Amino acid sequence: MERDELVRDHTIYACVMGSRAFGLATEASDTDRRGVYLAPTPLFWRFDKPPTHVEGPAEEQFSWELERFCELALRANPNILECLHSPLVERLTDTGRELLALRDAFLSQQAHDTFARYAVSQRRKLEADVRAHGAPRWKHAMHLLRLLTSCRDLLRTGTLTIDVGDQREALLAVKRGEVPWPEIDRRMTALAAEADEAARRTPLPGGPDRARVEDFLIRARRASALQADAHH
Hints:
Layout: H1 3-10, E1 11-17, H2 19-22, E2 32-37, E3 53-55, E4 61-65, H3 66-74, H4 78-83, E5 89-92, H5 94-101, H6 103-106, H7 110-133, H8 138-157, H9 168-175, H10 181-199, H11 210-231
Parallel strand pairs: 2-4
Antiparallel strand pairs: 1-2, 1-5, 3-4
Helix pairs in contact: 7-8, 8-9, 8-10
């Protein structure tokens, strides 16, 4: 089975991510598409396993096989968790609905660690830009402030919200280079400290509900195998 065919015929969930999902889109924004496909179970019975992810077929499109997607979400990968909370859903099957109903099973205190680690690595890149060019990449600075805010609020409330809401104008001012770097740096430090504080009394559970996710995956694989049998 062709990689494009997996995306075209077996996608269970597809959404728009990036600036459009975050409420930060401008005229020039790309449309980043992300999706999850369920590879037909009989493909796993061969020596050559189906791919864990597929780039394309459209520009700015990337999809994961369901199992790989769940593994990354259970590890609290920030990009994957955000993908499950996009307000812009383009395709949703019954299995996709079940996946979205599991959103809370993936959320845990682990997110503090993964979001914070990701933020530290991104911040180092921004600091390197400032040293080399006297200024950061403003768009990256904007997105890092957004991520830090989203992480803090997740730890405070137990809910992941990716639309920036009333922060839109303040964040776009950062993207336009209208906020000096020392002020951005100060905001990042403050948000990271607020996230650390929130983590101490977060309503989030200690770890994700791995058993609930695995049960869903097994049911999805079994249904796919039975469907293949029915076609033969």
